[in-house]
Amino acid sequence: MTDILLKLDSIDTFYAQSQVHFGLDIAVPRGEIVCLLGGNASGKSTTMKVILGLHKPRAGDVLFEGASIKGLPTAQIIRRGIASVPEARRLFGDMTVRENLLMGAFSRRDRDGVAADYARMLELFPRVKERLAQRAGTLSGGEQQMLAMARALMSRPSLVCMDEPTMGLSPLYVDKVLELIREINQQGVTFFMVEQNASLALQIAHRGYVLQTGRVVLSGDAHSLLGDQRIRDAYLGGALAAETAS
After folding, report:
1. What predicted TM-score, i.e. pTM, was given to this entire model?
2. Which of 91, 108, 181, 202 is such that its CA lies 20 to 30 A from the CA of 217?
């Protein structure tokens, strides 16, 4: 039986009277990379907010390690083992790279473990190591993404949630970020990533979900989805959307 690390179960989400999610069901198996695909206004970013406790669903539940985390403060969710690499990185621009990196371990009290993880991050992210004394706000977009990933890993998470990890990056850094996600996953970290670029995400993912106007319209293993013409329909509102609505 597959070990499900994170499960969104029949989620209904609203902003005031406007419904964003309609019975959303997503399962993230332990040890896998799972991508959530969809166009603008499909509900992808709200899905991430629901997981991280930034927006409470009106119905349904969010389960992590088999226990409900719905309604918990974000800080408690992070302490349970979920880390976030948000869209646009959201670093502390006036703080140094080193200070930003250590902020990822704010909830930890194991000094030796933090020191070991700090050394490991510098080995895993050599560009971060080269910029330790530099203010984070002066880094390039790709370097900021590297730092945001390293900061997330400093909490020693079981699950990393990444929101649009390739957005705004040069092709060189897009390839590097995807390569690092795959490498870190092979070391035992589970990833749930929201991404607009289906072909890029599905190349490294184990499985994917396609979200359209708050509903999952297509899901399956990444290899099958990568060759499925219905991906185009799901994004562009074509035949699949019409079938789903009928």
Report:
1. 0.89
2. 181
